Amino acid sequence: MQRILGQQSNRAIYQFIIKTDKSAPFELTLFKIIHTDDDDILKFIEEGQIIGSSINLA
């Protein structure tokens, strides 16, 4: 479940980058999600939630 949520968070970041044609410092984490442990996935989920909240406020 954590892995799925982490991938969804990163997918949302990727879609934001592509749709807005902007780069973000989190872009590199898209390629790391495949080879991470649970702690990293939880970190990705938290980052995704923060970015999602920021996008919703914008």
List the helices and strands and how they pair.
Elements: H1 2-20, H2 29-32, H3 38-57
Helix pairs in contact: 1-3
Overview of the structural elements:
The chain is mostly helical. The protein has one domain. Helix content is 74%, strand content 0%. It contains 3 helices and no strands. It has helices at 2-20, 29-32, 38-57. Helix 1 (2-20) crosses helix 3 (38-57). The longest helix has 20 residues, at 38-57. It starts with a helix and ends with a helix.
What structural keywords apply?
single chain, 58 residues, mainly alpha, 3 helices, 74% helix
What helical percentage do the residues reach? over 70%
E-strand count: 0
Task: Quote the distance from N terminus to C terminus.
Answer: 29 Å
Number of helices: 3
Shape annotation: elongated
Rg on CA atoms, Å: 11 Å
User: What series of H and E elements makes up the topology?
Assistant: HHH
Short description:
This protein has helices at 2-20, 29-32, 38-57. With 58 residues, the chain is mainly α. The chain has one domain (2-57).
